Amino acid sequence: MKFSETTILHKRTLYLVSTWVALSFFTACSIPPSEAPEVHVSEESQASGKPTDIKIMADYTIAQPPSPDNPVLKEFEKRTHTKLTVVWVPSGDYADRVNVALATGDIADLIKIPNITTPLFLQLVKQGEFWDLTPYITNYPNLMTLDPKIWNHTQIDGKSFAVPAGRPLNGGGFASIRKDWLDKLGLKMPTHMDELYTVLKAFKDQAPDGKENTVCYTMRDWRVVEEVFTGTVGKWKEQDGKLINMILESEMRETLVYLNKLYVEGLIPYDFPVLKENQFWELATSGRAGLTSETPEALFRYTMEQWKKDPSVEWTPMLSLAPKAGGKAFVTQTTGFNGVLAIPKTVPEEKMKAILKFIDYGSGGEGLDLTLYGIKGVHYTVVDGLKIANDRAFADSIGTATWGKMFSTPVLDLWQYAAGMPKEIYQRNMKIAEQKAKLSTGDPAIGLVSQTELKVGADYNKKIADTKVQAIIGKISMQEWDTFVDTLRKDPTYTRITDEINLEYSKRMALK
Fold this sequence. Notes:
This protein is an alpha/beta fold. Helix content is about 40%, strand content about 10%. It contains 19 helices and 13 strands. Strands 2-1-3-11-4 form a 5-stranded mixed sheet. Helix 9 crosses helix 10, helix 10 (about 250-265) runs parallel beside helix 17 and helix 17 (about 450-470) crosses helix 19 (about 490-510). The longest helix is centred in the C-terminal third of the chain and has 22 residues, at about 450-470. The chain is globular. The relative contact order is 0.17.
């Protein structure tokens, strides 16, 4: 896939949040990002005249990461008076690589942690191995534009030991559908799960793209189906002031019954449990599937070649789905961050401040432009104040899949635009994102930690995930699923996880 010289005009809208923040967290910032002085050099570097050496470990989600001589890396070095060594790790391997780094103590000066609740990270924070950034972050105006909710979601014991890799709260991943298939078959956009079944059944029986082996729904990230039925993101749902574990509730059973029906009728791939990322997308772009799950911008990137070959192809992000007719419409609200950026205490204080300045620079103003678009005149041109990407941007691995991983990039249209996207599709995506923001539901347990879950949660999660798949493919009956759930309900260790999460939840709510 390549960027086109004729990329439709596009302008990012900075996600400018009011600089006031909750008093329980930090004081108000007095300098807006647009007026902040361009100071990027540490006192140590100023005194010595030498650039600050920063070793960074971050993930990437495209075919190739930026090379050591990448022009954007060199431009960051020039503008921030730094010498950067970036260890790029494929996203699929990243969590394991982070755990190895944390366990061995071979930790980069700036390390992207996949989640604030990463057990080894929490353990090292408790041991004082990472900087408490709370007293410092008010000095970095671009970081202060982050929604206070996002900072709160990433705190540990009320303190910030990492900078959120900020993202928009709304408009992210959800179900997307072939609207041209709907139109061809005279079907309306489904609004609840029964209507969705009817649509998928029609896709299978009538095969709008003429594929005899049409599977209808790719099953990529099928948590979307779970969350529509349970009405929450993840497994925890607030009810009467407490969090309940939806894995144990009837709504999860309904999810599995629904997906088993799709499986039996051939509306999802029989081999979905073992499919790799590229295979999900092959199903979507080959005309064998009319429903998948992804962010709007990634959806367009993956399906752009399909659309170029056949302009009638119209993948459309769905607004929302309800579990049944008359039910509450559901769409996911994100955590507001894509991992967190932490600095170990092995880094001296002045260098830590220089690293924060580096993160701050890439998270707003001209630095954010460099992060998302690259170098003006090299990777994009400006016409009437709008940016147009070129082929060099693709060749140099520009954007959210690389540099955006190590900065805070919560621009409003982050997930709504991809280079090469026609203006009308971009505007449609933005309109849908605005509507989603009025309906979205988030995870009430973001950042809450159960010590028991840290120790044994992975084993439970694997067993639960395996049992769900067995129920979907019919390897076990729903009665056996019920027995499994009953066993979990009576398991004192598993019950302790719920108790501990609720204790942490009550502490959080008491602070509000």
